[in-house]
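Table S2 (text version). Query chain:
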Amino acid sequence: MIVVGAGIAGLAAAGARAEAGRRVLVLEARGQLGGRATAFVDRATGELVDNGQHVLFGCYHETFTFFRRVGADAHVRVQPSLEVPYLDASGRRSVLKCPQLPSPLHLLGAILDWDALPWSDRLRALRVAVPLLRARRGLGLQTGDETVSQWLTRHGQRGRLREWLWEPLAIAALNQSPAEAAAAPFLRVLALMFGPDPRDASIVLPTTPLHEMYALPARRFIESRGGEVRTHALARVHLAGHRVTGVDVRNESSGASRIIAAVPWFALAQLFTGASSLMDSTIAAASRMASKPIVTVNLWYDRAVMEDAFVGLPGRAMQWVFDKRQAFGERASHLSLVSSGAGDLVGLDNEALVTLAAREVAESIPGARNALLRRGTVIREKHATFSLAPGQPLRPAVETPVEGLFLAGDWIDTGLPGTIESAAIAGHRAAGALLK
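Corresponding C-alpha cell output:
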C-alpha cells in the first residue's frame, strides 16, 4: 500500500502499518520530510531553521505513541508540570506554575498563586472549574456557533486573566482570533490538557531540529521493516468509479489499490485524476476551507540574551519567543518569535517584520537590550492551519466512499484543531481502518 504525504499524519500511518508487518511506500512531493513541521536550510543565510515553532503538550498521547514507535521520544523535553514564564512590556518576569495537585485543581492553584494578576482576576478563574470538569467528561462541548470570546464572556473571564492566559492559549491552539474561532475545539483542547493526569498540561519542546526530531527516525523505522520512503515524488492517484485504480509518480505507474492520502486540505483536489463522483463533495468541502497563517521571525544575536527556553509576550504582535540554542546546538541566542493568527502581519515585508520582532525583543527581554542583532529571517506559513470559524465546511472522516482510499491529516474530523496531535490521531485511524 501507499501513503501519499510524509508529514506527521503520513509518517504515523506508515509507521503503524510497518509495525503491523506490512510493507509500505511513502511518497513525498517535496525534497524533505515532515510536511508543515520540518526544518530547512534558509537560502538567504545558510542557517538551518524550523519552518515555525511547534509546541506539544503532555496530553498528545497519540503523538507520543508514534514517537515511541519510531524511537523519537528522546528528542523532546517534557516539563515536570506546566510552567509558563511571561515578560510584560517593561521586562518584568512572572511565572504561571502548576503545583502538585490533582487536575484541574493544579491549574486553579497556579492561577491563584500567579502574582501577575490582580486578586479579582485570579478569583474569576474559579468560574471555569465546572465547565472544565464537564468538558473532561465529554459534556458541554456542543456550543453551537458560539465563539471562544463569547464562551469566555459567558463564564465571566475578563481582565488580565483573559488577556494573559485564555486568549493567548486559544490563539496558540487554534491559530485564530478568539473572536472568530468556534468554542468547541478550544474546549476539547482544554479537556485534554487538564485531563486526569496533571502532566497532560505540561509543555513539550523539541530538542533537535524538527526533521531530526521525528521525520528521520520515522524513515529509518519504516525502511528497517522493508518499506520505502521517497522524496521529490509528486503523486497522482487514479480514481475510477468506486475504487482506486493506481498511482503515478513522474513517469512511473503503480497498480496500487490501497492509498492513504495524507495531504493538506488545500492540496486534496490536485491529488486525484480520473473520475469518481463519490469524492466530489469531500473535495469541494476541502477546497472551501479557509486557511490561517503563522509568521515566524528568527533572530540571531551575538550572545545569549535569555535564560528561559521560551517566554510569553502578552500584548505583543509576536506572542511567544523561543530560544533555539538547545535544539540547534548554538552558543549565542537564536530566537524564534511566533505570531499565530497572523493575518495582520503576513503581508508585511521581511525587513518590517524583522524590525518589529527585534523591537519587541529589546523592549521585553532585558538581556537583549545591549546585544548585537546579527541577522534575521522570516517564515510565512500562509496555510499553517484551517479556519475553525463557525460555518466552515465539515471536516471529513478517514474513511471515504471510494474503496481503498483513506484520508489523514490534521484537518480530518478528530474534534481537535489543526495540531500535531490531530494529525497523529488521523494517521493512526487511517492505518487502523486500512488494516481492518
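Notes on Table S2: The radius of gyration is 22 Å. The longest strand covers residues 373-386.
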